[in-house]
Amino acid sequence: MTPPATAPAANNLEAFFMPFTANRQFKKNPRLLARAKGVHYWTPEGRKVIDGTAGLWCVNAGHGREEIKQAIARQLEEMDYAPSFQMGHPKSFELAARHAAMLPGDLDHAFYCNSGSEAVDSALKIALAWQRARGQGTRTRLIGRERGYHGVGFGGISVGGMVNNRKQWGVLLPGVDHMPHTHLPAKNAFSRGLPEHGGVELADELERIVALHDASTIAAVIVEPCAGSTGYLPPPKGYLQRLRQICDKHGILLIFDEVITGFGRLGTGFAADFFNVIPDLMTVAKGISNATVPMGGVFVRKHIYDGLMNGPENVVELFHGYTYSAHPLACAAASAVLDIYKDEGLFQRSAELSKYWEDGMHSLKGLPGVTDIRNLGLAGGIDMEGRKDAPGARGYDTFVKAFELGLMVRQAADTIAMSPPLVIEKNQIDEIIDLAGKAIKATA
């Protein structure tokens, strides 16, 4: 047997099967990032790139935070790993208590995992288990939304509504239905903040689905408060409030997927705070640990947790979890991140910068082929007119051109989305907007 090489082969890109990437296209012209600090990346050649997307919507406190590195190092020295099955470690309980204290309403329990995808599948399982525990075992149907993104587990892609994430995998979970998406460009194009039109009418589509299937079969509804991966779609006014009313009326659980909106993106701790709508379950990831150590979670309302705490005390209440649930390093990182958010007032900072960000985003109106601009909090999406017989080509070219100019953006079809770290300065927002505008013009 040939012993393994002691050093990797130079410039060998072939072995890594990259996620959500056109592998062959990328490896012919790779875009590599070598280091990061603050709101910037640097390429291996030393070229500086401003991070207009907080990594993947996740590096809310900026890159290279010494406080987080030190917390992880201390924890690694103290204890590298502890299981959470029938065992525990202090930092997991401390972190859950800190999260419970900052959450709105009676969201007061935390179930930890390792990603947004795992958080969604965990939330769906908790919803089904709770309905069964209260004697509503016929409630097995799950309702998602068109253009929704809820990760890549089979539960998440089943309730999700982005066709390319679904079409390869067959029939997915049975008994899933979808509400319409909330993007109404004919009525709401170039909205500043929440769109005016369609909120209640779109939410009332849930009543149609209830009438079709009967409430006795529906366990939960899951939505992103602001649909992120599809190109950033803030909900029309009144939409989330109406969903809450309908779910309460019919005994259906409401799940907010706050993997993107959680931890300050809208200028509040969570979108639930911003909209004053308390979901029954909330999924989080990304900003929970500033993306330093993979972590996700489900925040659970008291009556949901209490409803599962039945039967003999020696019986496991939820047969679900992960080897790395509440990993000590993740808990140490997440606790350090909470300190940064609090000490630097980053949620308030996000709120204060939102209007400046909005003005910058909408200054791009009128550029060649720009058909819509949307924003809420420190995030936004820009739709561009696609090329005939080449859907997504202009969006990809704009993404690549932006990187060449020194800006990271996200691309979804012919839309680019941006969501800078919450530590961004006004002059850096100006730079992001300027470079985005140049990239859009260059690919018209």
From TrEMBL:
It comes from the Bacteria. Transmembrane segments: none annotated. The keyword Transferase applies. It holds the Pfam family Aminotran_3. The keyword Transferase applies. GO terms for molecular function: pyridoxal phosphate binding; transaminase activity. InterPro entries: Aminotrans_3, Aminotrans_3_PPA_site, PyrdxlP-dep_Trfase, PyrdxlP-dep_Trfase_major, PyrdxlP-dep_Trfase_small. Keywords: Aminotransferase, Pyridoxal phosphate, Transferase. Its cofactor is pyridoxal 5'-phosphate. PANTHER family: AMINOTRANSFERASE (PTHR43094), AMINOTRANSFERASE CLASS-III (PTHR43094:SF1). Belongs to the class-III pyridoxal-phosphate-dependent aminotransferase family. This is Aspartate aminotransferase family protein. The lineage of its organism: Bacteria, Pseudomonadati, Pseudomonadota, Alphaproteobacteria, Hyphomicrobiales.
